[in-house]
UniProtKB/TrEMBL annotation:
NCBIfam families documented for this protein: PRK00230.1, pyrF
SUPFAM superfamilies assigned: Ribulose-phoshate binding barrel
Gene behind the chain: pyrF
Any one annotated GO CC term: cytosol
Subunit structure: Homodimer.
PANTHER family the UniProt entry points to: OROTIDINE 5'-PHOSPHATE DECARBOXYLASE
Pathway(s) where this gene product acts: Pyrimidine metabolism; UMP biosynthesis via de novo pathway; UMP from orotate: step 2/2
Protein name stated in the entry: Orotidine 5'-phosphate decarboxylase
Family recorded in the similarity comment: Belongs to the OMP decarboxylase family. Type 1 subfamily.
Any one GO molecular-function label of the UniProt entry: orotidine-5'-phosphate decarboxylase activity
Binding site for substrate: 10, 32, 59-68, 115, 175, 184, 204-205
Amino acid sequence: MSNPVYVAIDVPRLDAAKVLAEKVKGHVGGVKLGLEFFCAHGHHGVMELAHVGLPIFLDLKLHDIPNTVAGAMQAIHVLEPAIVTVHASGGRAMMEDAKAAAGENTKIVAVTMLTSLDENDLSRTGVAGSAHDQVMRLAELAEAAGLDGIVCSGQEVGSVHKQWKNGFFVVPGLRPAGSNVGDQKRVVTPRQARDDGASVLVIGRPISKAEDPLAAARAIEATL
Ligand SMILES: O=C(O)c1cc(=O)[nH]c(=O)n1[C@@H]1O[C@H](COP(=O)(O)O)[C@@H](O)[C@H]1O
């Protein structure tokens, strides 16, 4: 089975991003480039990182009216990303149009409830109920819209997997036992997420901020 870890390259400098990706490439399955990277380096930066030879996950978390999201999706065709994110709360029509506009080899996954949020945060946005229910509701909407899968925490992925058998599940908010949680709130270990049905494990700081990122990537791989 291929390595499910996508290393999140959330570093501001292009040269440092390339060095990190090259360093760990033998012990991860892909590279995730998010808002910090894309806002700083755009298409050029993505093309530079593609030279590393791993699949690229473009985590843009698109959330706008359907026409605008479809246009953004068309604008990134040329980059041939393996995975792109949109927000499920953008609604069914937005997700349908995002999928229709995407390249056929690109998986579109919907962010349900950010792993940096807990139920108190959720209620402050006007949504009552548990994180679990919110994720299940948005997963159902994403499936109905024809998306490939969702992004959720490891605390929900087991339930989502039972409901959506052939879905593609991206799980961030992962921390090896004993490591610093930082701004993440719904956290599990990489192994737990994998056992519960995650397709992709997104791991950033536990690798990128480690004193020795290669050793950190290796150690995580060894737990899987
Ligand atoms: O879509 C994502 O990848 C994402 C969704 C989510 O709910 N939580 C989340 O942390 N992420 C991303 O996953 C990565 C997690 O990074 P670390 O907390 O450093 O491992 C970051 O790049 C986030 O942007």
